[in-house]
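During the reporting period the student researcher (J.K.) took over the structure-prediction task from the postdoctoral fellow and processed the backlog of single-chain submissions. One of the processed entries is reproduced below for the supervisory committee.
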Amino acid sequence: MVVRRGLSSPLLAALVVAGILPAADALAQATGAECRPNPHLSRAKDEYERLEFDRAGRTLQRALEYSKNCRWDLAEIYRLKAFVDAVNAERERCQRAFEILLALDPEYVMPADVPPKIQACFDDAKRVPAERRELAVQHQAPPEVQANAPVSLPVRGGSP
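J.K. obtained the following structure tokens:
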């Protein structure tokens, strides 16, 4: 069974970051009426501008865990996360963050004045086929569930 809707935003953010849930599904979650501007995003931008990259990375993680992210905030979080990852020489993470940004905003154009390290990472992300990013969360329903009792639900990534 494939589940794509109804996840809590912190779980949603964790699944996207882990590469288990596609950013397109995060988009579907983030466009609902419950989205609110992310209070952590402006702080992360300030930290990045002050060259506090490790601190910005931690703040961006909190921004991803925010339960009411809007689509445009998610796109900006992943853009800034990619920049931080590039600066910290985390090439694979940088590329993945740009892949998610491009899934959220396929028309995104990188400014001409970005450093070559960031531009190269973005170019690598643009070369990844969109269908490679399409993953899904799959789970097996438990055979029996007790009313008002916790349920363990094994989840794994896979193709839709």
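The committee noted the following: Confidence is low (pLDDT under 50) at residues 1-15, 27-31.
J.K. will present the remaining backlog at the next meeting.
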